[in-house]
């Protein structure tokens, strides 16, 4: 073989690629971009699974004998920015399960042995109910409760992955992340397993966390970002491993009316965690998917306004100079992070060691931060199902949470 | 009476005052500075006390029929800076109760039904023990535990104020705050009662806290600042009212070796919360007491290094230009406030509604922040006893907590 | 003499004071507040005056044989906040001299030998004209030029203080500062003389300036703040002593349209440099006069919008939470301070050593900063006349400078 | 042609490239990386040259008839990080011309008609001398003067590019920048020509500068970074286009002794302006060359300490946590940028319109910022010769400038 003679051919070919390679004009593959991706199939990590997780998988027929977790096949992982952008870029219908639920939630609360509001503005624990046994009426009331309380917890759950997925599907289109390692046979059930990060070479230290121990909201770069995320932890550290959530409703209420008005109607650019090749500029580094969403969004169920920004994925406010955007976003991130009265900190430990704990939170109205103080000294493993929400919108007629609840606005 | 004829006389008299007034050369009281102080005696607020508090007081013979709380008499409240500075300015002996305690704490742990480490670096809850029944051996082990875990919690306590005071006296000289309203007859037992703030006209709002809902360490301006503080809450909101602590040991371990070395041996100026007249400049506004302490201090019991600064009372680093001090202190405050893995958040609710909950924390190695999310919608009341500690020192041979425990230093 | 028996009398008397003292009910002077003030009369510093200044004073009949400068008499210096607030609190007519001037400034420019625009957005030097010989037509054109170019310079001026004052009176009500040391016999001509600061005990160092070497705008706390300030330096360091100005027009044009719109119509609180006793709270420290002005103001002459804030005297934006105000003001201060393309730096040295140099700037549309690099190693002395302007207003129909000049707005 | 069958081959080939391409194992060129580079040769922009520049070129025999400027040939432009790193990575001898010069500079000053120190700490203008006629003795004295005054200016210069280059070679190894467009036939003479940026598609706006209108020091990523840079502007805007320099000596003197001591002996990482492919990771975006230099360096000629960091190219302090490095560097950048008393602002306009102006500054002890207020409305063009300096070092015995000059250190 001889090298291409006409250098212009190469330039052209760099812009005319197929899905997975940089080719020349003749279709010759110059660089096989799939090379950087994991092969699809099963990871050989099943032997590292914690006993409680294995027991749950065995009980509910999740076969890990062929390996664990499952890695998406290469052909489903986007290589180019436009491919990543095309994932779920079309709108899909969103059914608001909580909208018409009983405001008093009698079916849900009546069946519980205890309902504990953990703080005033965010976080409720329900005791004495099994998530997998909820009726649809209870599920609707739970959707409303999550929309009001931002995050709802259930300890001591005997929950099959299949039922977890079913509940997620009831709440909306389940996100199937093209890159995420997931439960074998269930690409809607992703894995939260610090051991996996370690095996992938991503190691945090006491002084610097490399993973989720920073404030963020999940999947905000999507066309219809995450609504309810349900994380069920089936292996939980004996000490530590708390998660903290902060309320976007309450963050909005912390702002002055003048700053609220300034932000209402404005939008921000949200970036993806993953990066992709730019088809027109494949050699200049990978780029993130960017989408534009309102900074103040209205929750469809409660009709309450929420501050929708987060340090990890919100890049800039549209229409401001870079320096202006930077100081205002930094201030807004701080509203979530510094005001302890709009946060809840939850320790996942069940009262019965062989059962798991579930948290269901609404990503439209919250940020969270997973504390990594256990430093991989103890196992932690969870299955996560995310139900995507509506196309974010701002309704200028909507109210703030405190306004709606008749609380003081100063 | 005629006005002074020689204006110089007045100037002189402004510098030659007695304890409580600005006088002229003849001893004539020109301004009675006591006027701004509350009269001593009993406040008429006893009828506002929560039922659980009243029950505790009745059970243990605290008489509030003459009023509650007790206000210090005017003559004990410093008027001038030098008077305030003179309070406990002489060193007093400090007995380190934890120093020789059993490192395994067998007497304490053996008697407990459960010992729960709430996070890795900070916070332990002991279940099944009554603080007022501790033996001295158990008290010593508890002192060691507090020194190691920063803060220790006991729910469901039936604790008399008298026994709380006695425990505090065992741990060191009990702080008697000249301004603080306190339990009638017990000036070593101060009151944490948001209702009292309200009655004094100090009202917080959702957007702006005026009281303790900000990060601080107690009494850092003292010659021998607070060691162990014991807050026993006998009335607790049904929802909210958590307190958050952050560890000064772990904050030190978060710093780079280079910054640790820079701070070791340096000192900072700590300011008092209260203000006083400057005898030499009485008309230019009240001033704060200022004392100088090491920024990195060694805990006498554990021998571990701790970062000793806090946003509320640390004013400046000695030897730096103001702008330098400002950015470095702001960074150090953020180490405590932003690293959720070195914080513990505690909800005070007892499992039995008629009992109280105690927290004992070490102010030498922590900051805390009392969350005011209950917004005075529910009663909260506690009695506090603070045992003062040693004169702060830095021992260049001492180790960090993680170093001592053999944990990774990166 | 015996002390007052009824303490309530004293409390009352602290609120019922005459202009200069805290008295009791019987009119007894308890504290003579005039004591902190300089006595009126002449300072004994004339012998320190630089030779060029002395020569000018001699030529124009300014007699310093009785002392220099003149200190305002005590009875004219406000003691209490309300007295300070009352100074020029009534509106007075403002005549806009530049409004109807020839836009081409033919009379002014035609008489000059050279007109040098020092930078694009700010600063013009006029060569070959004597300020004291200007016709009214030329003065009007100069007013227009200052309004357009923010600051205008004239070197090699042979200018009598009397003529300087007359020009200032032509431009508006001349500010007579109740505290300022001034030219003997002329309380409208204040002194800029670093030697005076030194004699008053205010000493700057290389690392920390105590005086005007920080960004500020003059007299922004007044009801009708400063319009044109005219500083004539008659003694100028051989090296250094530059002054820098930044344009408020250009600062406005640096903002995004969204932030411009946010600020338009909003106001800020401006604080005075001097402090006064609060009549109702005389023992709690002196306080500053505070007045509220638009953040974006329209210049009456040009009709252009200007950003009107400065680090030294602008305290907070009305209607924002404190934290919001702080980050936005800090950003706005930085727009003036960091953008070198909207600044002019001027060295005062005349081409003829025995003549002086004048700068006339418009405080409505600028900040400035007097560089103290000569470190008192050489004399510097100037006479200053400030013509107060209109009540600040914002006209929503007004344009930005670049908009009006047809320059790019991005 | 068929695609490679063994995908592993491609992976291997991505790491085994020749200088300018990504190839497969067989040497097949997969991606021709030269495609992104300008072709060598002459740019067709000569017709845009300003008249004064053309006159100078014609006078001194610079032929632009074949195009202007000259673009380096592709084969000299590094593609890969290791190639860029190899450029001048070997030490070369540095001759310190100023070291033994007459401290009184009698030959230089004696020949000048005037020597103007523009500010106290930085900047001197020499009047009445032609740079191209300097004797070696005068050149040595000039080197010493630059080392002392940081930047020295000469207006009204009739200077041939050849003589400019010769002077640069006298002062050290002349930097030949592999990417820089330069004078035809003289790769040691680079071009400062905003018009060129425009033609390359780099356009600044009033609100955002894309080029050199930010604080920086030249070429700090080199093994032996720039010593004296000599910029001769032969076309100068009628209004604006000033450059500002700040002194690293004085910046060091602004720090507290404690912070000085902290920084002494520490190093920082400096990044290059240009980016290159990582041979081991060619598809993950281009990377910058990084080199490590002392933060406090000693100038070889004066023996004075200088603060050596700049916002544009200093990335991080070695040995600090990222957050620590960020706040301390931001503070240090501000020392240069905010302290107007250690800056000089220079307007380049000659007194004779057909002559040029030269600035010679020392990059070891300064930052600068080229103000773009003329907004391409007028031509600006200059030729630049940079003499590289010694390997940066810190001598713990060296003194600060103010210490050495006997000035106050507070």
TrEMBL record, chains A, B, C, D:
Entry cofactors: Fe(2+)
The organism's place on the tree of life at top rank: Eukaryota
Keywords: Dioxygenase, Iron, Metal-binding, Oxidoreductase
Pfam families documented for this protein: TauD
Entry keyword annotation includes Transmembrane helix: no
Domain TauD/TfdA-like: start-end pairs: 116-386
Gene3D superfamilies: Clavaminate synthase-like
A single GO cellular-component term on record: cytoplasm
SUPFAM superfamilies linked: Clavaminate synthase-like (SSF51197)
Signal peptide: none
Protein's UniProt keywords contain Cell membrane: no
One MF annotation (Gene Ontology) recorded for this entry: 2-oxoglutarate-dependent dioxygenase activity
Family of this protein: Belongs to the TfdA dioxygenase family.
Alphabetized PANTHER family for the sequence: ALPHA-KETOGLUTARATE-DEPENDENT SULFONATE DIOXYGENASE, ALPHA-KETOGLUTARATE-DEPENDENT TAURINE DIOXYGENASE (AFU_ORTHOLOGUE AFUA_3G01010)
Protein name: TauD/TfdA-like domain-containing protein
Species of the source: Babjeviella inositovora NRRL Y-12698
């Amino acid at each position: 073989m001889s090298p291409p003679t006409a250098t212009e051919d190469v330039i052209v070919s760099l812009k005319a690629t197929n899905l997975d390679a940089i080719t020349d004009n003749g279709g010759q593959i110059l660089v096989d971009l799939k090379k950087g991706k994991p092969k699809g199939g099963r990871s050989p990590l099943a032997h590292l699974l914690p006993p409680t997780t294995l027991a749950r998988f065995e009980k509910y027929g999740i076969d890990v004998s062929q390996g664990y977790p499952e890695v998406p096949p290469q052909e489903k992982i986007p290589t180019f920015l436009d491919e990543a952008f095309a994932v779920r870029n079309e709108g899909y219908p969103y059914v608001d399960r909580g909208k018409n639920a009983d405001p008093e939630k009698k079916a849900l609360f009546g069946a519980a042995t205890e309902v504990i509001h953990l703080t005033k503005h965010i976080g409720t624990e329900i005791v004495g109910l099994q998530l997998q046994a909820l009726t649809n009426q209870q599920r609707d009331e739970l959707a409303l409760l999550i929309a009001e309380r931002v995050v709802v917890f259930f300890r001591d759950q005997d929950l099959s992955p299949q039922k977890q997925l079913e509940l997620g599907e009831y709440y909306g289109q389940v996100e199937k992340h093209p890159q995420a390692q997931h439960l074998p046979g269930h690409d809607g059930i992703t894995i939260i397993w610090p051991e996996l990060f370690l095996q992938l070479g991503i190691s945090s230290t006491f002084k610097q966390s490399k993973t989720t121990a920073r404030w963020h909201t999940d999947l905000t770069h999507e066309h219809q970002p995450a609504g309810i995320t349900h994380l069920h932890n089936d292996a939980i550290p004996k000490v530590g491993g708390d998660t903290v959530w902060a309320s976007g409703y309450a963050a909005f209420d912390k702002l002055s009316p003048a700053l609220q008005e300034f932000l209402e109607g404005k939008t921000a650019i949200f970036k993806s965690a993953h990066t992709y090749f730019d088809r027109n500029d494949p050699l200049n580094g990978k780029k993130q998917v960017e989408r534009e969403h309102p900074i103040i969004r209205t929750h469809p169920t409660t009709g309450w306004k929420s501050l929708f920004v987060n340090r990890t994925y919100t890049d800039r406010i549209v229409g401001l100079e870079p320096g202006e955007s930077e100081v205002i976003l930094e201030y807004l991130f701080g509203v979530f992070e510094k005001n302890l009265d709009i946060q809840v900190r939850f320790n996942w430990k069940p009262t019965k060691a062989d059962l798991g704990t579930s948290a269901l939170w609404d990503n439209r109205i919250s940020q969270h931060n997973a504390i990594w103080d256990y430093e991989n000294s103890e196992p932690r493993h969870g299955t996560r199902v995310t139900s995507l929400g509506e196309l974010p919108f701002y309704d200028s007629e909507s109210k703030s949470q405190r306004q709606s609840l008749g609380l003081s606005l100063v």
